[in-house]
Amino acid sequence: MKTSIIAAYDKLASDYEYNVDTKNAYNIHYERPAMIKLLPANLKNTKVLDAGCAAGWYTEQLVKLGAEVIATDISTEMVAATQRRIGNKAKVLNLDLENELPFPKESFDLIMSSLVIHYINDWSKTFSEFQRILKPGGKLLFSIHHPFMDFKLSKNKQYFSTELIIDQWERKGRLIEVPFYRRSLSEVLNKTLEYFSIENIIEPQPTIKFKSLDPLKYERLMSNPHFLIMKASKKNDDVELPGQHSI
Protein backbone atom coordinates (compact mmCIF):
# COMPACT_ATOMS: atom_id res chain seq x y z
CA MET A 1 0.00 0.00 0.00
CA LYS A 2 2.71 2.49 0.98
CA THR A 3 4.70 1.64 -2.14
CA SER A 4 1.59 2.43 -4.20
CA ILE A 5 1.32 5.88 -2.61
CA ILE A 6 4.99 6.58 -3.28
CA ALA A 7 4.68 5.36 -6.87
CA ALA A 8 1.62 7.56 -7.45
CA TYR A 9 3.29 10.70 -6.16
CA ASP A 10 6.53 10.02 -7.98
CA LYS A 11 4.40 10.05 -11.14
CA LEU A 12 2.54 13.20 -10.05
CA ALA A 13 5.63 15.17 -9.04
CA SER A 14 6.13 16.84 -12.41
CA ASP A 15 2.46 17.86 -12.56
CA TYR A 16 2.68 19.34 -9.07
CA GLU A 17 5.86 21.21 -9.89
CA TYR A 18 4.73 22.73 -13.18
CA ASN A 19 0.91 22.75 -13.21
CA VAL A 20 -0.74 22.53 -9.79
CA ASP A 21 0.62 25.85 -8.51
CA THR A 22 -0.69 27.79 -11.50
CA LYS A 23 -3.63 25.82 -12.91
CA ASN A 24 -5.39 23.77 -10.21
CA ALA A 25 -8.16 25.90 -8.72
CA TYR A 26 -8.80 23.38 -5.92
CA ASN A 27 -5.35 24.19 -4.57
CA ILE A 28 -4.93 27.83 -5.56
CA HIS A 29 -8.42 29.16 -4.84
CA TYR A 30 -9.84 26.71 -2.32
CA GLU A 31 -7.49 24.94 0.12
CA ARG A 32 -4.50 27.27 0.18
CA PRO A 33 -6.23 30.60 0.97
CA ALA A 34 -7.95 28.99 3.98
CA MET A 35 -4.73 27.42 5.26
CA ILE A 36 -2.66 30.60 4.82
CA LYS A 37 -5.31 32.61 6.67
CA LEU A 38 -4.66 30.50 9.79
CA LEU A 39 -0.92 31.31 9.82
CA PRO A 40 0.60 34.18 11.79
CA ALA A 41 1.38 37.14 9.53
CA ASN A 42 4.98 37.08 10.71
CA LEU A 43 6.78 33.78 11.19
CA LYS A 44 10.24 35.30 11.63
CA ASN A 45 12.52 32.99 13.64
CA THR A 46 9.74 30.40 13.92
CA LYS A 47 10.74 26.77 13.41
CA VAL A 48 8.27 25.03 11.08
CA LEU A 49 7.95 21.47 9.81
CA ASP A 50 6.26 21.21 6.40
CA ALA A 51 5.13 17.60 6.79
CA GLY A 52 4.41 16.21 3.34
CA CYS A 53 5.67 19.13 1.28
CA ALA A 54 4.85 17.80 -2.24
CA ALA A 55 6.57 20.16 -4.71
CA GLY A 56 7.26 22.77 -2.05
CA TRP A 57 4.66 25.50 -2.53
CA TYR A 58 4.00 25.85 1.20
CA THR A 59 7.71 25.52 1.96
CA GLU A 60 8.36 28.55 -0.20
CA GLN A 61 5.55 30.59 1.39
CA LEU A 62 6.74 29.75 4.90
CA VAL A 63 10.29 30.83 4.05
CA LYS A 64 8.96 34.10 2.61
CA LEU A 65 7.17 34.71 5.92
CA GLY A 66 10.48 34.41 7.74
CA ALA A 67 10.22 30.86 9.10
CA GLU A 68 13.08 28.44 9.51
CA VAL A 69 11.67 25.45 7.62
CA ILE A 70 12.36 21.75 7.37
CA ALA A 71 10.28 20.11 4.63
CA THR A 72 9.67 16.39 4.24
CA ASP A 73 8.02 14.09 1.75
CA ILE A 74 7.82 10.33 1.26
CA SER A 75 8.30 10.71 -2.51
CA THR A 76 11.89 11.22 -3.66
CA GLU A 77 10.59 12.96 -6.79
CA MET A 78 8.63 15.46 -4.68
CA VAL A 79 11.70 16.03 -2.51
CA ALA A 80 13.72 16.78 -5.66
CA ALA A 81 11.03 19.18 -6.90
CA THR A 82 11.03 21.05 -3.58
CA GLN A 83 14.80 21.26 -3.61
CA ARG A 84 14.69 22.79 -7.08
CA ARG A 85 12.11 25.32 -5.91
CA ILE A 86 13.66 26.31 -2.60
CA GLY A 87 17.40 25.87 -3.15
CA ASN A 88 19.30 26.25 0.11
CA LYS A 89 16.60 28.31 1.84
CA ALA A 90 15.20 25.25 3.66
CA LYS A 91 16.26 21.71 4.48
CA VAL A 92 14.32 19.05 2.54
CA LEU A 93 14.22 15.43 3.73
CA ASN A 94 12.83 12.18 2.35
CA LEU A 95 10.83 10.87 5.34
CA ASP A 96 7.91 8.58 6.11
CA LEU A 97 5.52 10.25 8.58
CA GLU A 98 4.43 6.85 9.89
CA ASN A 99 7.89 6.27 11.38
CA GLU A 100 9.73 7.87 14.28
CA LEU A 101 10.90 11.30 13.14
CA PRO A 102 14.60 12.24 13.36
CA PHE A 103 14.05 15.39 15.39
CA PRO A 104 14.66 16.09 19.09
CA LYS A 105 11.83 16.65 21.50
CA GLU A 106 10.26 20.12 21.29
CA SER A 107 12.00 21.15 18.06
CA PHE A 108 9.20 23.01 16.25
CA ASP A 109 6.81 25.89 16.88
CA LEU A 110 4.49 24.81 14.07
CA ILE A 111 3.79 21.69 12.04
CA MET A 112 1.94 22.26 8.78
CA SER A 113 0.61 19.35 6.75
CA SER A 114 -1.42 20.01 3.63
CA LEU A 115 -3.60 17.21 2.20
CA VAL A 116 -1.29 14.48 3.47
CA ILE A 117 -2.61 12.75 6.58
CA HIS A 118 -5.43 10.92 4.77
CA TYR A 119 -2.69 8.80 3.15
CA ILE A 120 -1.84 7.40 6.59
CA ASN A 121 -3.82 4.44 7.89
CA ASP A 122 -3.13 4.71 11.63
CA TRP A 123 -2.65 8.26 12.87
CA SER A 124 -1.47 7.23 16.35
CA LYS A 125 2.27 7.07 15.62
CA THR A 126 2.20 10.17 13.44
CA PHE A 127 0.32 12.31 15.96
CA SER A 128 2.42 10.97 18.83
CA GLU A 129 5.56 12.06 17.00
CA PHE A 130 4.04 15.44 16.08
CA GLN A 131 3.15 15.98 19.75
CA ARG A 132 6.65 15.00 20.85
CA ILE A 133 8.50 17.36 18.51
CA LEU A 134 6.26 20.39 19.07
CA LYS A 135 7.34 22.95 21.62
CA PRO A 136 4.97 23.76 24.52
CA GLY A 137 2.13 25.75 23.02
CA GLY A 138 3.15 24.64 19.51
CA LYS A 139 0.55 24.42 16.76
CA LEU A 140 -0.50 21.72 14.31
CA LEU A 141 -2.25 22.88 11.14
CA PHE A 142 -3.43 20.21 8.71
CA SER A 143 -5.91 19.70 5.89
CA ILE A 144 -7.47 16.45 4.70
CA HIS A 145 -10.23 15.23 2.44
CA HIS A 146 -13.63 15.98 3.93
CA PRO A 147 -15.20 12.74 5.24
CA PHE A 148 -18.49 13.58 3.53
CA MET A 149 -16.77 13.77 0.15
CA ASP A 150 -14.82 10.57 0.68
CA PHE A 151 -17.85 8.55 1.71
CA LYS A 152 -19.26 8.97 -1.79
CA LEU A 153 -16.30 6.88 -3.02
CA SER A 154 -16.88 4.13 -0.46
CA LYS A 155 -17.47 0.61 -1.67
CA ASN A 156 -18.33 -0.97 1.66
CA LYS A 157 -20.72 1.88 2.64
CA GLN A 158 -19.74 1.42 6.29
CA TYR A 159 -19.36 5.05 7.29
CA PHE A 160 -17.72 4.42 10.67
CA SER A 161 -14.99 2.13 9.34
CA THR A 162 -11.58 3.25 8.08
CA GLU A 163 -11.49 2.19 4.45
CA LEU A 164 -8.83 2.10 1.77
CA ILE A 165 -10.01 3.97 -1.32
CA ILE A 166 -8.32 3.73 -4.72
CA ASP A 167 -9.06 6.94 -6.59
CA GLN A 168 -8.10 7.63 -10.19
CA TRP A 169 -6.68 10.96 -11.31
CA GLU A 170 -6.34 11.83 -14.97
CA ARG A 171 -3.09 13.59 -15.84
CA LYS A 172 -1.95 14.28 -19.41
CA GLY A 173 -4.25 11.64 -20.84
CA ARG A 174 -3.28 8.85 -18.43
CA LEU A 175 -4.98 7.55 -15.30
CA ILE A 176 -2.94 7.38 -12.10
CA GLU A 177 -4.27 5.29 -9.21
CA VAL A 178 -4.02 7.25 -5.97
CA PRO A 179 -4.77 5.28 -2.78
CA PHE A 180 -5.85 6.96 0.46
CA TYR A 181 -7.83 6.17 3.63
CA ARG A 182 -11.38 7.29 4.28
CA ARG A 183 -12.58 7.69 7.88
CA SER A 184 -15.53 9.16 9.74
CA LEU A 185 -15.66 12.73 11.02
CA SER A 186 -15.84 11.47 14.60
CA GLU A 187 -12.66 9.43 14.07
CA VAL A 188 -10.87 12.51 12.69
CA LEU A 189 -11.91 14.64 15.66
CA ASN A 190 -11.40 12.06 18.39
CA LYS A 191 -7.97 10.96 17.17
CA THR A 192 -6.84 14.59 16.99
CA LEU A 193 -8.15 15.22 20.50
CA GLU A 194 -6.14 12.30 21.89
CA TYR A 195 -2.97 14.29 21.27
CA PHE A 196 -3.95 17.95 20.80
CA SER A 197 -6.44 20.63 21.77
CA ILE A 198 -8.48 21.68 18.74
CA GLU A 199 -8.64 25.44 18.18
CA ASN A 200 -10.37 25.73 14.81
CA ILE A 201 -12.28 23.47 12.45
CA ILE A 202 -12.61 24.98 9.00
CA GLU A 203 -14.70 23.75 6.08
CA PRO A 204 -13.19 26.04 3.45
CA GLN A 205 -15.24 27.73 0.78
CA PRO A 206 -13.92 28.49 -2.72
CA THR A 207 -12.91 32.07 -3.46
CA ILE A 208 -14.75 34.40 -5.81
CA LYS A 209 -11.85 33.93 -8.24
CA PHE A 210 -12.69 30.21 -8.30
CA LYS A 211 -16.26 31.12 -9.26
CA SER A 212 -15.06 33.20 -12.21
CA LEU A 213 -12.84 30.33 -13.40
CA ASP A 214 -15.35 27.50 -13.03
CA PRO A 215 -18.88 28.45 -11.89
CA LEU A 216 -20.15 24.84 -11.95
CA LYS A 217 -17.39 23.50 -9.70
CA TYR A 218 -17.78 26.55 -7.48
CA GLU A 219 -21.45 25.78 -6.90
CA ARG A 220 -20.60 22.12 -6.28
CA LEU A 221 -18.08 23.04 -3.59
CA MET A 222 -20.50 25.46 -1.96
CA SER A 223 -22.99 22.62 -1.49
CA ASN A 224 -20.58 19.69 -1.09
CA PRO A 225 -17.37 20.35 0.91
CA HIS A 226 -14.23 18.62 -0.35
CA PHE A 227 -11.64 19.53 2.29
CA LEU A 228 -11.47 19.88 6.06
CA ILE A 229 -8.88 21.98 7.92
CA MET A 230 -7.91 21.60 11.56
CA LYS A 231 -5.81 23.91 13.72
CA ALA A 232 -4.74 22.40 17.03
CA SER A 233 -2.27 23.09 19.80
CA LYS A 234 -0.03 20.87 21.89
CA LYS A 235 -1.69 19.72 25.10
CA ASN A 236 -0.32 20.59 28.51
CA ASP A 237 2.83 18.56 29.17
CA ASP A 238 1.37 17.41 32.49
CA VAL A 239 -1.19 15.31 30.61
CA GLU A 240 0.12 11.85 29.71
CA LEU A 241 -0.66 11.07 26.07
CA PRO A 242 -0.94 7.73 24.25
CA GLY A 243 2.44 6.68 22.89
CA GLN A 244 4.21 9.71 24.37
CA HIS A 245 7.96 9.31 24.74
CA SER A 246 11.11 11.40 24.68
CA ILE A 247 14.59 11.08 23.24
From TrEMBL:
GO BP annotations listed: methylation
Protein's UniProt name: Methyltransferase family protein
Pfam name, any one: Methyltransf_11
Gene Ontology molecular functions: S-adenosylmethionine-dependent methyltransferase activity
Gene3D superfamilies hit by this protein: Vaccinia Virus protein VP39
Taxonomy of the source species: Bacteria, Bacillati, Bacillota, Bacilli, Bacillales
Keyword field: Methyltransferase, Transferase
Methyltransferase type domain segment(s): 49-142
Lineage: superkingdom: Bacteria
InterPro entries: Methyltransf_11, SAM-dependent_MTases_sf
